[in-house]
Structure formats: structure tokens, C-alpha cells
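Example 9 (inverse folding). The structure is encoded as follows.
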């Protein structure tokens, strides 16, 4: 299935993390009782990651994606801290950090079905 975007980077244990956003809105959160699905991406199992930590959605009036924080633990976007109920607009290669998970938000290339971030993490 074609993806709108991809999250690519390092998971909570330092291993490579890749997830595709194929349905909007998509929730990001802690695993456990909630199974991963088309609209839910498990970021990890650490208690500092809320079950429903953030949501990524499309904003038609701005013609871009955004991430909304739902957790009191907050998130870091573009190297800036945002607390609960913050809404941050995303562009391709936006850097996101939720607890120990550090990923890039990568828009899908018009010519392929998935986003490609190989170039930015080699730096």
C-alpha cells in the first residue's frame, strides 16, 4: 500500500526504526495492550512513551502534515521542546524525538511508493 510518509531513525534501544504512515490520522504511542495497525505506530515500550503520545495528520488549509502531542512528557520537534496539546507543522526531514526514539519524518517521493531517508542519516 502506498505511504504518505515514513518515520525513519533510531528506536529506543538504538536499533534502526522504520514505520510507514499509510492512514490518516496516525497515532504514535507505547506498545503493549494496543496492537500496531494501519493507524497506530508503536514507538517502543518504555513507560515514558504514552499509550497515545502523538498524532500525525494532514492539515488541508496549510497543505502540510502536523504532529499533535497528547502526552505530559512532551516531544521534541526541530530541536525544540513541545508540551501536551502542542501542534507542530512538519516538512520532509523534520526531526522528531519522543523519549529515546529519534526519527525523521520523510515525505514519500512522487516517483516511488515510500519515502527515502538514506541520505540524511549518513551524515
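The amino acid assigned to each position is listed next.
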Amino acid at each position: 500500500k502506498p505511504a504518505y510518509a515514513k518515520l525513519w531513525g533510531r528506536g529506543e534501544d538504538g536499533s534502526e526504526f522504520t514505520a510507514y504512515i499509510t492512514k490518516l490520522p496516525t497515532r504514535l504511542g507505547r506498545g503493549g495492550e494496543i496492537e500496531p495497525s494501519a493507524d497506530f505506530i508503536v514507538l517502543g515500550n518504555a513507560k515514558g512513551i504514552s499509550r497515545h503520545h502523538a498524532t500525525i495528520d494532514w492539515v488541508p488549509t496549510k497543505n502540510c502534515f502536523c504532529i499533535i502531542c497528547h502526552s505530559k512528557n512532551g516531544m521534541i520537534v526541530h530541536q525544540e521542546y513541545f508540551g501536551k496539546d502542542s501542534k507542530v507543522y512538519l516538512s520532509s526531514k523534520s526531526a522528531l524525538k519522543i523519549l529515546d526514539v529519534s526519527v525523521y519524518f520523510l515525505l514519500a517521493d512522487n516517483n516511488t511508493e515510500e519515502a527515502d531517508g538514506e541520505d540524511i542519516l549518513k551524515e
